[in-house]
TrEMBL record:
<feature type="transmembrane region" description="Helical">
    <location>
        <begin position="272"/>
        <end position="298"/>
    </location>
</feature>
<feature type="transmembrane region" description="Helical">
    <location>
        <begin position="471"/>
        <end position="490"/>
    </location>
</feature>
<keyword id="KW-0769">Symport</keyword>
<feature type="transmembrane region" description="Helical">
    <location>
        <begin position="323"/>
        <end position="351"/>
    </location>
</feature>
<comment type="similarity">
    <text>Belongs to the sodium:solute symporter (SSF) (TC 2.A.21) family.</text>
</comment>
<feature type="transmembrane region" description="Helical">
    <location>
        <begin position="189"/>
        <end position="207"/>
    </location>
</feature>
<dbReference type="GO" id="GO:0031402">
    <property type="term" value="F:sodium ion binding"/>
</dbReference>
<feature type="transmembrane region" description="Helical">
    <location>
        <begin position="227"/>
        <end position="251"/>
    </location>
</feature>
<dbReference type="GO" id="GO:0015824">
    <property type="term" value="P:proline transport"/>
</dbReference>
<dbReference type="GO" id="GO:0005298">
    <property type="term" value="F:proline:sodium symporter activity"/>
</dbReference>
<feature type="transmembrane region" description="Helical">
    <location>
        <begin position="5"/>
        <end position="23"/>
    </location>
</feature>
<feature type="transmembrane region" description="Helical">
    <location>
        <begin position="395"/>
        <end position="420"/>
    </location>
</feature>
<protein>
    <submittedName>
        <fullName>Proline permease</fullName>
    </submittedName>
</protein>
<keyword id="KW-0813">Transport</keyword>
<dbReference type="InterPro" id="IPR001734">
    <property type="entry name" value="Na/solute_symporter"/>
</dbReference>
<feature type="transmembrane region" description="Helical">
    <location>
        <begin position="432"/>
        <end position="451"/>
    </location>
</feature>
<feature type="transmembrane region" description="Helical">
    <location>
        <begin position="69"/>
        <end position="91"/>
    </location>
</feature>
Length: 539
């Protein structure tokens, strides 16, 4: 084991330990444990949001995809960028306003209150969706951590997975949401620096971009085609297949919970979009080119890598001094932990709060609920560990499967409930139930994570039309349609409709807090609505 790499990593680990200890002083109640008491600064919430979003998929899965597919993998980055913007426009501000109004601290809290569901079915379905797909998502992060440790320290993947689980679970149990947010901020900066440094070092090593493209063209010219060599309908499907991540952003509980914690919903617009958008563009560029240039290094005999998804840690070890490589390995582990910690926390809230406390009606004190949640975190981590040790160990595929289940289960109902006053609890129940059942059947029994022409019966025919497109992309719109149809044939309570109209009614330009027309028009309508709601004490 290289002592320099170990030193760099241990410094990073000590920093995480300090943050967990510091955050524990501010984690005394359930509200603080799950959403930080709704006092999180927008800068911290935004960086935490993106660190939670871009997981081991960013540092291992996406570069591995670029290594294998070449230029065509850039479509996935485009999908992620526009998905990020969609979250801040469609979900963030409105969810924060509603969450403040209902004092909701989890997504199921919000959905139950917004749809006025007294049957507990929405909360139960939410808990099932989170438990099933979030545990699978956590397993993908554990696998990513295991691969990184294996490449950096010369140990087996399974040993690396076990080390990842121990480190991660310890600080989530200790610090709760504050620990997750502030470690995410540190991790976001590690990820940013890693993905800026590695591509430039690779370019220097190869001898320039022209030399890199020549090496790639010699090996496989299709890797330099943005459509992977496909034409016509096949080219469109190719692009959709990679860019389809966009719809998933609307239904990820570990991401949207960040918006519920922000101190001021207005800041989720311009400051939030600017910070998040800038960070996203840089890291996606870096991750793509790390994998793209890594393939050129591999073809030139400059890099030895056994697994395409290990290309970045292999490049760090090859291109950097050992102590700096240790920090890069820490940056990759950061990406893994920054998502897995949030997912563990959301899974914990689904079991401890939504199921045990709300569905079963078990009354416990706030401090006791925090302790129960910590035990649940440990339990979910153990289940995730088992899946990571026994699963396929292909991070891109594992993340796509889990991402899709959450996207279909939550995305359509969450978006409609924030923007359409007519959505009903019946629509939500039927839509979420369909999303849960269909994703389990389609992804586990028929297609796998993407459509393929080898599926049985009529599904094989459909698979030949959309070969390579993730199942969740098509299923998202089917679920959206089902919720709309059921909501149109049922009727929402009048007070629910009136509340929605009051919260999000158009705010007049003139006379808004005595600001001039120019000052008021300089803001977006969403910002004006948020300011109006806060001024009226609705949140």
């Amino acid at each position: 084991m290289n002592s320099g790499i170990l030193f760099g990593f241990l410094v990073y680990l000590a920093l995480l330990a300090y943050i967990g200890w510091w955050a524990n002083r501010y984690t005394k109640t359930e509200d603080q444990y799950f959403v930080g008491g709704r006092k999180v600064h927008v800068l911290a919430a935004t960086l935490s949001d993106k660190a939670s979003d871009f997981s081991g998929w960013l540092m291992l899965g996406y570069p591995g995809s670029a290594f294998k597919a070449g230029l065509g993998a850039f479509w996935a980055g485009i999908g992620c960028l526009f998905g990020t913007l969609a979250d801040y426009v469609l979900i963030g501000p409105r969810l924060r306003i509603y969450a403040g109004k209902f004092r909701a601290i989890t997504v199921p809290d919000y959905l139950e209150a917004r749809l006025k569901d007294n049957t507990k079915l929405i909360r139960l379905l939410s808990a099932l969706i989170i438990i099933i797909f979030m545990t699978a998502y956590v397993a993908a992060q554990f696998t990513a951590g295991g691969k990184t440790f294996a490449e950096g320290f010369g140990i087996s993947d399974n040993t690396g997975i076990i080390i990842t689980v121990i480190i991660l679970t310890a600080y989530v149990i200790t610090g709760g949401f504050f620990a997750v947010v502030w470690t995410d901020v540190v991790q976001a900066m590690f990820m940013l620096l890693t993905l800026i440094i590695v591509p430039f070092l690779a370019l220097s090593k190869i001898g320039g971009f022209d030399k890199a493209t020549a090496l790639i063209a010699q090996a496989d010219p299709a890797k330099l085609d943005p459509f992977g060599g496909a034409t016509g309908w096949a080219a469109i499907i190719f692009a959709i297949g990679y860019a389809s991540w966009i719809v998933g952003y609307l239904g990820q509980p570990h991401i949207v919970t960040r918006y519920m914690s922000v101190e001021d919903p207005r800041k989720l617009r311009r400051p939030g979009i600017f910070i998040s958008g800038t960070w996203t563009i840089i890291v996606l560029w870096g991750a793509f080119f790390a994998g793209f240039l890594g393939f050129a290094m591999y073809q030139a005999g400059m890099l030895n890598v056994s697994d395409p998804e290990k290309v970045i840690p292999a490049m760090a070890v090859e291109l950097m001094p050992s102590w700096l490589a240790g920090f890069v390995i820490a940056g990759i582990i950061s990406a893994v932990m920054s998502t897995a910690d949030s997912q563990l926390l959301v899974a914990s809230s689904a079991i401890a709060r939504d199921f045990y406390h709300k569905v079963l009606g078990k009354e416990v004190g706030k401090k006791q609920m925090v302790n129960i949640s910590r035990l649940v975190v440990a339990g979910v981590a153990i289940v995730g560990l088992w899946f990571a040790l026994t699963g396929p160990k292909v991070i891109y595929q594992m993340v796509a499967t889990a991402w899709g289940g959450l996207a279909v289960g939550f995305g359509p109902i969450l978006t409609l409930s924030l923007w359409w006053k007519r959505v009903t609890k019946e629509g939500g129940i039927v839509g979420m139930a369909y999303g849960l059942i269909s994703e389990v059947i389609f992804e586990a029994k028929i297609y796998g994570w993407a459509f393929n022409p080898d599926a049985p019966g009529i599904f094989g025919t459909i698979g030949s039309w959309f070969n390579g497109v993730p199942v969740f992309f098509i299923n998202f719109f089917i679920t959206l349609f089902i919720i709309i149809v059921v909501s149109l044939i049922t009727k929402p309570p009048e007070d629910v409709v009136k509340l929605h109209e009051e919260l999000f009614r158009k705010v007049p330009i003139e006379g808004t807090n005595k600001k001039s027309i120019t000052e008021t028009r300089a803001k977006s309508q969403v910002e004006n609505v948020a300011e109006f709601v806060l001024a009226k004490g609705m949140v």
